[in-house]
Write a structure and sequence with these properties.
Radius of gyration: 12 Å
Strand content: 35-45%
Largest sheet: 5 strands, antiparallel
Distance between the termini: 18 Å
Number of strands: 5
Shape: globular
Length: 70
């Protein structure tokens, strides 16, 4: 892994059924990937925006996930 792809932090999002996604922080961006997805959902400028994007892609009516830093 080179310096350009190394994550500085990782948060895993947990819903009622287990892991629902993750957010990686790299440089000035927060990268969201949903659990089981082959590609990233998107890149966001702030953690709160990334969390909102992840939550928006859960099933309708899903509770706000718990985010744990790893």
């Amino acid at each position: 892994m080179n310096a350009q792809t190394r994550s500085t932090a990782l948060w895993v999002a947990y819903g009622s059924g287990g892991v629902v996604g993750m957010i990686r922080h790299r440089g000035d961006e927060y990268i969201v990937t949903m659990a089981g997805a082959d590609a990233e959902l998107g890149t966001y400028p702030a953690m709160d925006v990334a969390k909102s994007a992840l939550h928006a892609h859960l099933a309708p009516g899903a509770d706000w996930p718990t985010f744990r830093q790893h």
